[in-house]
Amino acid sequence: MKHWNAHVFLLHALCSMIHDMKKYSLKFWVIFWSVSGLFLLGWYFYWNTQNRGMASSVENVLSFLPINNSQKKEYRALTKVGDFLLKSDDKEKNLLVLFQNNMEIRPGGGFIGAFGIVKLKNGKIISLETHDLSNFDVKIPNTMIPPYPLREMGVADFWKLRDSNFSPDFAINAKKTEEFYQLGGGEEKLDGVIGITANVLSSILKITGPISVEGYPGTYNSDNAILSLEYQVEKAFEEQGIDRDERKLVMSDLAKEIEKRVFSFNLSQKIELAKILLADLNKKDIQLNFENEKLQKEIKAANWAGEVDQNWSKDYLMTVDANIGAFKSDYYVKRSIDYTVDLSKQLPVAKLKITYEHTAKQKDWMTRDYRDYLRVYVPENSELIDQKNFDDTKFGSEFGKKYFGAIVRVPIGTSKTVEINYAMPQEIKNDYNLKIQKQAGLNDVPIVFHLIKEDGTTEEFSRVMNSDLVLSDLK
């Protein structure tokens, strides 16, 4: 923890310099530097415990970043979060931060390898504790049966915090995480839960540029950092003659180098970092859930709550993947979606194709044949017609939606297309509209949508999905 203490000291020392900055408000600079420092601190812990995760008081940075007038909902949410966290009210606020590794995708964003407990008071961090799930989960009683198919496929005999994000809805995951935290002996009353994926490290490196670490080969950049660090602490340290107990010191050294860059940013770089972090919120690489109802209402309005839209009554699609024991294969698995809706028939018919391409060349320390539990959420009362590569289908209903679920296997070096055809309720044709929600942790997924209208004419739209979409976004 000595590295953490040093970094926290640097962070607070930096914040003390803000009083001399006149161009922007004190709150802006406090939040900006908090985000820069805390994100880096989180990444050091992310890798220093289980090579996963991110850091803590994300909200701080997101509270007062410079945004334009067209982003009023986001601005409102940012300022509300900032006011909540920075308020001098002598009240302690406790946040639980989930570090999610989306190279091992789970419905809520990625496998949870670690979490942090951040305590704030009067706008300052007074405590930062980190927990490795391999140690914390043993404290949780072996009483809860895990959701399908974790037990059936030999991944987990009992449900623990590491698998608590098995819903595509972050609010549900947050409540389940809190429950497990209490079962494991956590005593704090939590004011919020924050989920952060590994992508945020790459975001910061887009602004800092490539970084070399003395004593280690190569450079770390936004494209290679996650994989390179994973390899360094899992395999390369042996080749370099580094003692196993010291194999993760590279993370501390990298964090220091990033800090140097961030702390020397000019104004344009600071604004650029703010924009990227805001984009991470919109991509669901950062998800927020607070106990304060008014605050959470603002977060929902900005679409940062990671919730499944239960109020949408038109056509709806959400595909949800869960890596089941395939190591970190999601780094190599590329997805694409082709969705056709035919309104010319008596009942509207949907034809969905999801293609998985496993680009790895061979099995190694981080990848295996892909084994995925796929759930497809569609309008309630839809009926499955037929399917391909989607056998032993499970059916269920939640969030006012119906879902089809099945195990999908994709061997290394191959591709597989899942095809699901289903009929939707007739009322879907009335004033047709479509909403597609993305899964947290999965970005840059190409999607093509074909709409066959009632008169037989067709329209085609395509996007790379990095946020939730409605039909007007596709046009």
Number of domains: 2
Structural class: alpha+beta
* Average pLDDT level: 83
Radius of gyration, CA atoms, in whole angstroms: 23 Å
With helices defined by DSSP (H or I, 4 residues minimum), what is the helix count?
12
What spatial form do the alpha-carbon principal axes imply? globular
How widely separated are the two ends? 51 Å
Number of strands: 19
Largest sheet features: 6 strands, mixed
* Relative helix content: 25-40%
Q: Order of strands across the biggest sheet?
A: 13-14-11-8-16-19
Strand content: 25-35%
- The unreliable regions are 1-70
Description:
By secondary structure, this protein is α+β, with helices and mostly antiparallel strands. It has 2 domains: 2-301, no CATH class; 315-474, Immunoglobulin-like, CATH 2.60.40. Helices cover 31% and strands 28% of the residues. It has helices at 2-16, 26-50, 58-63, 72-86, 133-136, 170-183, 199-208, 225-239, 249-263, 267-282, 293-301, 471-474, and strands spanning 92-101, 111-121, 124-132, 192-197, 211-212, 219-220, 286-290, 315-323, 333-342, 349-358, 370-379, 383-388, 394-398, 401-410, 415-423, 434-436, 445-452, 458-465, 469-470. The chain has a 6-stranded mixed sheet. A 6-stranded mixed sheet has the order 12-15-10-9-17-18, with no helix packed on it. A 5-stranded mixed sheet has the order 3-2-1-4-7, sandwiched between helices.
